[in-house]
Structure to design on (469 residues):
């Protein structure tokens, strides 16, 4: 067969007008009904292939990983990063070297060992202090979780954290949020299809301005690190120290390690690690407040397993199948990165019986897998039993792909999993989360974006009696 089928495009704009601007995911699921799991669309004059359902996604991302590891170089966000860093870097030595460096650095910092846990637990003391201030009342958890997730990344890459009310920190976070919001919305598409508009002062200019400001921030911190000469000779304190050492080690070997690539890598980790984790936490809290029996069961499991121990550890997850199921179910319904990051075909290839020419942009519709019928016991409702077997043991179905799969699989997956577990257990151990009386009817609909988020809500906070006191 030839190229995957799809709706007929209009000249110049392709299928853009057929996509629901508020929620293109709805349009995509209608197109699956009509054309099957692999179909095509035109964004302007460029064809893209959309992959839906576990089978097609795994075929492309895992079985044919080499053929589908590329990244597009023509879309707005690839122009923004100039293809540097990891997220939007095309396959090649620079992507490979930086991905390997970031993964091994995260590991050496103790992913799965103590020190990374300590960084997260340290941030949690600030989270709990702030929640305590709201005890008996209610608060919007958006900033709290954003700041906490961002601070954990800051501690890893810069070796320091910000106070939650720091104005400068707030500005950095707002810039990241705006970049994520504009990254795949209608303005980004307009940028792609109408190059003549790029010089005009339209909202997409903001993305470039904010990215530049983030870059300047990274430059400043890197310069500070360079001036502290101890960084080069002693135990590295953070990722910047590690990168500076790597640059020294590799000087003259023709590798891609330099200041500019370091800035891009740090921005990538900062941007990729904030919204994603924090929106997942907000989804979890929304459902815990409105499904009180689920929260009650988490409280029971946490109290029984931790007793009067002071802190939770990541290893405790093995003794808490119900909490694990709730976290995974929150990731499933939270559907935080619905269309993954776009891939491209690195070579002329075949998929699902269709021909995919080299360079074709490919959109892995992760959203379609997370609620795929036939893959889940309860695809369309929040139900932790999607991750529990008949013995109450935690099981992870193959369709659990919020981090995507294959050679581009999320680089921060282990960190994110550790954060979600430690944060939720610590918060639930100390607090009961309640839907406020004046909270209205809970709205579970997500706000579409490169990263999706629940709508803003208020969270009632009650102190629980401390076990062991
Ligand atoms: C719940 C939290 C998170 C979710 C759901 C998530 C999801 C994803 C997804 C779907 C991708 C695209 C994979 C692909 O292209 O096929 C991705 C890539 C990536 N993520 Fe995450 N992520 C999360 C947290 C994090 C964190 C905490 C970090 C930082 C330490 C991070 C860093 C990255 C990076 C650097 C990439 C690009 C990998 C590459 O292109 O080689 N993510 N993530």
């Amino acid at each position: 067969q030839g190229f995957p089928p799809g709706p007929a495009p209009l000249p110049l704009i392709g299928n853009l007008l057929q996509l629901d601007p508020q929620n293109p995911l709805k349009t995509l699921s209608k197109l699956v009904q009509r054309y099957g799991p692999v179909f095509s669309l035109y964004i302007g004059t460029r064809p893209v292939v959309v992959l839906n359902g576990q089978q097609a996604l795994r075929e492309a991302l895992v079985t044919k990983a080499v053929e589908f590891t590329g990244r597009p170089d023509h879309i707005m966000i690839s122009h923004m990063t100039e293809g540097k860093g990891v997220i939007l870097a095309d396959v090649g030595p620079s992507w490979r070297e930086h991905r390997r460096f970031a993964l091994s650095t995260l590991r050496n910092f103790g992913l799965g060992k103590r020190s990374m846990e300590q960084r997260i637990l340290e941030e949690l003391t600030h989270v709990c202090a702030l929640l305590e201030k709201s005890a008996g009342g209610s608060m919007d958890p958006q900033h709290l979780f954003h700041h906490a997730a961002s601070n954990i990344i800051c501690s890893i890459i810069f070796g320091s954290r910000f106070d939650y009310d720091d104005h400068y920190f707030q500005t950095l976070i707002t810039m990241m949020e705006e970049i994520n919001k504009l990254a795949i919305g209608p303005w980004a598409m307009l940028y792609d299809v109408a190059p003549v508009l790029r010089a005009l002062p339209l909202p997409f200019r903001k993305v470039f301005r904010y990215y530049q400001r983030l870059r300047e921030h990274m430059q400043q911190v890197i310069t500070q690190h360079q001036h502290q000469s101890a960084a080069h000779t002693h135990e590295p304190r953070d990722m910047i120290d590690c990168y500076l050492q790597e640059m020294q080690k590799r000087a003259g070997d023709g590798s891609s390690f330099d200041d500019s690539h370091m800035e891009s890598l740090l921005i990538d980790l900062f941007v990729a690690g904030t919204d994603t984790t924090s929106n997942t936490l907000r989804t979890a809290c929304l459902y815990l407040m409105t499904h009180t029996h689920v929260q009650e069961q988490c409280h029971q499991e946490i109290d029984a397993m931790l007793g009067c121990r002071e802190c939770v550890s990541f290893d405790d997850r093995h003794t808490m199948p119900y909490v694990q199921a709730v976290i995974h179910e929150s990731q499933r319904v939270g559907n935080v990165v619905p269309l993954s990051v776009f891939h491209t075909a690195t070579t002329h290839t075949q998929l699902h019986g269709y021909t995919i020419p080299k360079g074709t942009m490919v959109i892995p519709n992760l959203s379609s897998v997370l609620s795929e019928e036939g893959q889940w016991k309860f695809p369309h409702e929040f139900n932790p039993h999607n991750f529990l077997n008949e013995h109450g043991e935690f099981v992870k179905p193959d369709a659990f792909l919020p981090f995507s799969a294959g050679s581009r699989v999320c680089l921060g997956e282990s960190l994110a999993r550790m954060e979600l577990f430690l944060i939720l257990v610590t918060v639930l151990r100390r607090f009961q989360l309640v839907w406020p009386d004046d909270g209205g009817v809970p709205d579970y609909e997500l706000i579409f974006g490169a990263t999706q988020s629940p709508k803003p809500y208020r969270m009632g906070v009650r102190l629980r009696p401390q076990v062991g006191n």
User: Anything to note?
Assistant: The CA atoms of residues 287 and 327 lie 11 Å apart. The first strand starts at residue 38 and ends at 43. The domain at 16-463 is CATH 1.10.630.10 (Cytochrome p450). The first helix runs from residue 24 to 35.
